[in-house]
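Table 4 source record.
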Amino acid sequence: MMIASDIRTKIRQQPFKPFRLYVSDGSLYEIRHRDLILVTTSMVVVGLHANENETIPDRTVDIDLAHVVKMEYIEPVNA
């Protein structure tokens, strides 16, 4: 189980580094901008959109923190 403070640490990192959230059902969500994720004590709300460069979501998905199993940074394409 992921702890809210672990996710908040990644979101607040300067400069922001995009990362992936892995969920127990096999889903994964790429967080490419800090404005596209909200963390509460029990939930993570992820904003989803069709355009990768957009920071205003088309829709959201609510994820229970108990189902977030892993986070990892997204490697830069030119790394």
